[in-house]
Amino acid sequence: MTQASQKPVIVVGSGLAGLSAAYEALKAGATVRMLDRAPKPGGNSIKASSGINGAGTQYQRIAGITEDALFYDDTVRSAGQRFSSAGSSSVVDRKALVSLLTSRSCSAVDWLVEEFGIDLGVVAPLGGHSIARTHRGAKGTPGFSIVSALLKKLGDSPEFQLTNAAEVLSLITNQNGAVSGVRYTHEGETHELHGAVVFAAGGFAGDAKGLLAKYRPDLTGLPSTNDDRPGAHGILEEIGAEFVDMDSVQVHPTGFVDPKEPEARYKFLAAEALRGEGGILLSHEGKRFVNELGTRAHVSDAIMRMPRSSSENSRQWDVTLLLDPGACEAAQGHLGFYIFKGLMEKKKVKDLEPSVIQAVDDYARAVASGADTAFGRKSFGHWTLQAGEGNREAEVCIGRVTPITHFTMGGAAFNEAAQVLRMDKTPIKGLWAAGEITGGIHGDNRLGGSSLLECVVFGRVAGSQAAKAVVGV
Cα 20–22–23 angle (5° rounding)? Predict the structure, then answer.
């Protein structure tokens, strides 16, 4: 079959999962049609700010980490009860999915570096990780760097076509229930496109009045890092896809409260890397209250147990994120943007509230001693500030943060071949999925840095498998 006569691989969604699938499909000899409902490509992936996880990478070795055999265990621990209680009756094989995710993490990082020339040479610790394994570049945010590089490479191929502002309405199925294409609207007209389908349309954390309200009404009123838009899950549900963990929604502990629009629902994420590089969190009383590198769920819960800020129109907390000069320098790739946007500012220690100065001194003493007896933090990043009067002229970076809805761990049940599953565990032919639309990997709580990773690992699998269906190899 020639490329001119074969059906394309249709990729729904232009985040990293869809882009990874598209690239692998092209390499396997398929043509690719990508449809995305947003006016610009990149999805939520382009906003990802902490990095991508990789265990056993060359960059860890350069950083002095000679062995990393705990990624699987860290992921399982973070997944919590949903993983440990999963038995043979579960639609998804969680052990197999996590094994694939973690075992291919090193090759995922290498792929991005070698195929696209992306800088991922900085390795940092994030909450819930037993070791530093989250990779990013020295400049810019990792999501933008990665997505931009893939879009550029894909755009160079005449066999790739991206259509933005294209709303997929439904999947086309044949008499046997196999998926054979999509129906979509674009510029006011409805079209049909036939081919193998990779569904990578993202999660539903921005669907405040729809799926989020249905599965997690207790989160009503929280701001979000996601644009306000409905989830695409109903399209898969209509053809018999099974869903798992739909009530498992991640609340990220740190979204920036913009002083210009403090009650805006959409908020920029305060990257977890800011805490990984040494940043601390302070309560409205100016006191530390948590191990800043605990899991996202642990830190979020600690914040939400405190009194809320006084606003009646929004569900927010008054928490300060503070980085000392060493942490500021290490996180400069992020800070330039945050300071430009007015989300963080620099202040001399002497100009802080007395309670905050006391907290800074107390933490500096803990760092110097190597033991955080108050909260058990084990990694202090690049914090260099010493305690006492000698630090008063030093400049720290501070911003106000609050918990936000960020990521949905639940989604369509799928397997290691990225095939979407029915309730009886049988795959729906002609359909693959990857990224946040899928469920079963992260359980109760996703580790920071594993979102971009799952997009690469399972996006690549989905793209290569879909290509086999249309190329016939």
Answer: 65
CA–CA separation, 468 vs 464, rounded Å?
A: 6
- The rounded Cα 98 to chain-centroid distance in angstroms is 16
Contact partners, residue 158, CB within 8 Å, separation at least 6: none
pLDDT in tens, 304-351: 999 998 666 679 999 999 999 999 999 988 898 899 999 999 999 999
Output the furthest CA–CA distance in the chain (Å, rounded): 77
For the record, the structure tokens of 21 come out as 């699938």
- Closest C-alpha among 420, 412, 411, 409 to residue 466: 420
Report the DSSP pairing between strands 134-136 and 243-244. Answer: unpaired
Catalytic site includes residue 275 = yes
How many CB atoms sit inside 10 A of residue 331's CB? 26
pLDDT at 221: 87
CATH numbers and ranges of domains, the chain: 9-248+409-471 (3.50.50.60), 252-405 (3.90.700.10)
- What is the spatial distance between Cα 202 and Cα 211, in angstroms, rounded to a whole number? 13
Start-to-end CA distance of the chain, whole Å, equals 10
What's the distance, CA 222 to chain centroid?
A: 18
Catalytic option among 94, 252, 377, 446:
252
Whole-model pTM: value is: 0.90
| C-alpha of 189 from chain center | 33
Closest alpha carbon to 284 in 235, 356, 346: 356
**Active-site option among 133, 275, 406, 446:** 275
**Do the beta carbons of residue 448 and residue 50 sit within 8 Å?**
yes
Instruction: Give the neighbor-by-neighbor strand order of the sheet with 189-194.
Output: 166-173, 179-186, 189-194
With bands split at pLDDT 50, 70 and 90, how would you rate the model's confidence at 260?
Answer: very high
Q: What is the pLDDT of residues 354-398, one digit of tens each?
A: 999 999 999 999 999 999 999 999 999 999 999 999 999 999 999
The amino acid occupying position 216 is R
Q: Which residues contact 9 (CB under 8 A, 6 or more apart)?
A: 21, 22, 25, 30, 31, 32, 33, 195, 196, 197, 198, 463, 466, 467, 470
pLDDT value at residue 1 = 45
Segment 389-408 mean pLDDT: 96
Q: Is the pLDDT of residue 268 over 90?
A: yes
DSSP labels for 341-382? Answer: TTS-EEEEGGGS-HHHHHHHHHHHHHHHHT--TTT-----TT
- Which parts of 84-158 are beta strand (E)? 122-124, 134-136
Which residue matches tokens 């496109």?
193
Q: Across the chain, what does the average pLDDT equal?
A: 94
Cα 271 to Cα 283: distance, rounded to the nearest angstrom:
18
